[in-house]
Design a protein that fits this description.
This protein is α+β, with helices and mostly antiparallel strands and about 150 residues long. Helix content is about 45%, strand content about 25%.
Length: about 150
């Protein structure tokens, strides 16, 4: 079975920037902010749309219950969480999975600028998510916008 990974071309570019460029030059020992800025710079040089500290709402039963700021959001498709830790932990992975579960984004990369460079790729298809409340919120906003246009322009 030759199943294509969702956003594989994009995650390959991100990982290439990580391993071949940023980690190769900076190595281990800086704060996450340094790596975030370097990754954003390198990914933009590759022609990608990069949003740093992207505000992402977290939904529960149709209500915004919190927000978090993704280190990087690439092409509005892939969440990238950066770490500068000795090792990636189960807690780091659980954090990324929860972000994917509670948002419309389906693919995330957890990248560690530790003594040994490392990453985890996580995917959570929207069809498998038990709560797709952001869809109902987006649909509600679209319906309101349509109603406003109808009232205004008949």
């Amino acid at each position: 079975m030759d199943a294509e990974l969702k956003h594989a071309d994009l995650t390959d570019k991100i990982l290439r920037a990580f391993y071949k460029k940023v980690y190769h030059q900076l190595g281990y020992g800086f704060l996450e902010n340094v790596y975030e800025n370097a990754m954003a710079y390198e990914l933009r040089r590759m022609g990608l749309n990069v949003e740093q500290q992207a505000k992402i709402n977290v939904y529960y039963e149709g209500q915004i219950v919190g927000e978090y700021f993704a280190d990087l959001l690439i092409e509005s498709k892939v969440i990238v969480e950066l770490k500068a830790a000795k090792n990636l932990t189960d807690d780091h992975e659980a954090q990324l999975l929860n972000y994917l579960r509670a948002t419309p984004y389906e693919v995330g990369l957890l990248i560690n600028f530790g003594p040994k460079p490392d990453f985890r790729r996580k995917a959570f298809d929207n069809e498998r998510k038990t709560s797709t409340t952001w869809i109902s919120s987006a649909a509600m906003l679209l319906a309101l916008a349509s109603a406003t246009l109808l009232l205004r322009f008949g």
